[in-house]
Design goal:
This protein folds into four domains: 124 residues, 3-Layer(aba) Sandwich (Rossmann fold); 178 residues, 3-Layer(aba) Sandwich (Rossmann fold); 128 residues, D-3-phosphoglycerate dehydrogenase, domain 3 (60s Ribosomal Protein L30, Chain: A); 77 residues, Alpha-Beta Plaits (2-Layer Sandwich). 34% of the residues lie in helices and 23% in strands. It is built from 17 helices and 22 strands. A hairpin with a 2-residue loop joins strand 17 and strand 18. It is globular and about 80 Å long. The model has no long low-confidence stretch (mean pLDDT 90).
Length: 528
């Protein structure tokens, strides 16, 4: 019996034809995703689900999807899919990370020009029979400075188009290498400098814990007076209340928004505000983009359902069916040590070295390296996956070196990831034990053995008597239970590391209390 695929959103008819041409049984019900009860009643009948943004794949839907093997999102964002729940059920979640890039970049340029010349307001005025030439005095973009926050694939295209308009482009992106910046013709700067210098600011970064409200009230106050702000990336990157206040005061001259903190945005504090241009999340809304992502998602899903091939998956390595059993535990290890290093990396990456020792060096290290890069980049770039991660690193000019060798040390297999930044070099190593579970075996040259849980507390301290008791007391007083406690040190009285698994996330006060303990050099909560 042929695998069954449900398309529950408005997807190009081309996708339907691709599924049929591959011999799959496909049902095209483009409004089903809006009817939660009907959707819930039928989802258990399908092997594959193709969606856009309207269908919400919740925990409840996944629990009812008894036969579902793959979810394909036509587009990059998967905010409407409960990816952890899908992972627990063994359901692969795929996206199409590059199909909308040109379309979204062009929309950002259009929005920039619209706010510079007040085109929507001038259009309404003129069609209402008014002739208010003096009211709609605009500004030229020629010779102005465009500040791009997030200079990945879309940001680089925006930079190219802006250069064609004779603009000077500066960019803030922790993952943008110096060579890559030179290659695309942008000046790499820190965020404070971008805010100070930019006449226009365009956001092209995903929404993560680190980028949420990156344009906060404080950041907006530090921008140049008269700046114009464009957001065609993700809602939540801008404090909308603060932006509204800055528009009212005249500090910000204009804004153009395609995305909002809450969508669909039937109401918003910025609606009706003078000098604000708003569109309903149209960044990917061109016929070309819709066709591209429909073709990509259909081909990917068909290839997986028929051949077991995985591509553009957010929750599974891109590996063949034959390689999967041997690679899976080492992919998990590579992604964990990458995530460990990524959560501790605060400055721009310049280089990455990954060492494979023992029999693991004879496996498909390309997949392992992709897993490590995915873990490394995900704290900053939430939508990264094993296919896009190597491309993102290459685009940002970050060098990646692979070293493979026979077993030399005490462990039969191990993987070491070394991250080189503008300020320091940090390495993390791990192995897979006989139980199939990954373990950390070394951090910054300090030997220790630790299994990573969901919530980990990382503390760098001086090896002094009483420290462990003081740390335990702080956690105990905060009502936080310790699951495991792992220690390592350079030498007696020297630098030491404590890696503690805790049952729940620390509140800000408890984290601050740990940081203030005597002999603590660094403290950070990590999530896995």
């Amino acid at each position: 019996m042929a695998p069954r695929v449900l398309i529950s959103d408005k997807l190009s008819q081309t996708a339907v034809e691709i599924f049929k041409n591959h011999g799959l049984d496909v049902d095209f019900l483009p409004d089903l995703g809006k009817d939660k009860d009907s959707f819930l009643a039928v989802i258990g009948n399908y092997d594959g689900l193709a969606i856009r943004s309207a269908t919400k794949v919740t925990q409840k839907i996944i629990d009812a999807a008894d036969n579902l093997k793959v979810i394909g999102r036509a587009g990059i964002g998967v905010d409407n899919v409960d990816v952890p729940a899908a992972s627990k059920r063994g359901i692969i979640v795929m996206n199409t990370p590059f199909g909308n890039s040109i379309t979204t970049a062009e929309h950002a340029i259009a929005m920039m020009l619209s706010t510079a010349r007040q085109i929507p307001a001038a259009d309404r005025s003129t069609q209402n029979g008014l002739w208010e030439k003096s009211r709609f005095m605009g500004v030229e973009v020629t010779g102005k400075t465009l500040g791009i926050i997030g200079c990945g694939n879309i940001g680089a295209i925006v930079a190219s188009r802006a250069q064609g308009l004779a603009m000077k482009v500066i960019a803030y992106d922790p993952f943008l290498g110096v060579e890559r910046a030179l290659e695309i013709g942008v000046e790499k700067v820190e965020l404070d400098e971008l805010l100070r210098r930019a006449d226009f600011i365009s956001l092209h970064t995903p929404l993560t814990d680190k980028t949420r409200n990156i344009l906060s009230a404080d950041a907006i106050n530090r921008t140049k007076k008269g700046v114009r702000i464009i957001n065609c990336a993700r809602g939540g990157l801008i404090d909308e209340t603060a932006l509204n206040a800055a528009l009212d005061s005249g500090h910000v001259a204009g804004a153009a928004l395609d995305v909002y903190a809450e969508e669909p945005a039937k109401e918003n504090i910025l609606f009706g505000t003078e000098n604000v241009v708003c569109t309903p999340h149209l960044g990917a809304a061109t016929s070309e983009a819709q066709e591209n992502v429909a073709i990509q998602v259909a081909e990917q899903m068909a290839d997986y359902l028929l051949n077991g091939a995985v591509s553009n998956a957010l929750n599974m390595p891109s590996i063949t069916a034959e390689e999967a059993p041997r690679l899976r535990p080492f992919c998990a290890l590579a992604e964990q040590i990458g995530s460990f290093a990524g959560q501790l990396t605060e400055t721009a990456l310049t280089g990455i070295r990954i060492e494979y020792e023992g029999p693991v060096a004879e496996l498909n290290t390309r997949a392992l390296t992709a897993a490590a890069l995915t873990g490394l980049l995900r704290p900053q770039l939430a939508d990264v996956n094993m296919v896009s991660a190597p491309t993102i690193v290459k685009d940002r000019g970050i060098s990646v070196e692979e070293v493979r060798r026979e077993q030399m040390g005490a462990y039969e297999n191990y993987i070491r990831l070394t991250v080189i930044t503008e300020r320091q070099t940090r390495s993390v190593a791990g192995t897979v034990f006989s139980d199939g579970k990954p373990r950390l075996i070394q951090v910054k040259g300090i030997n220790m053995e630790a299994e990573l849980g969901n919530h980990m507390l990382y503390v760098v301290n001086e090896d002094k008597p009483g420290f462990i008791g003081a740390l335990g007391a702080v956690l105990g007083n905060s009502g936080v239970n310790i699951a495991t406690f792992n220690l390592g040190r350079e030498a007696k009285g020297g630098g030491a590391i404590a890696l503690i698994e805790i049952d729940e996330s620390l509140n800000p006060k408890a984290l601050s209390d740990v940081a203030r303990l005597p002999h603590v050099r660094q403290v950070k909560e990590l999530q896995f």
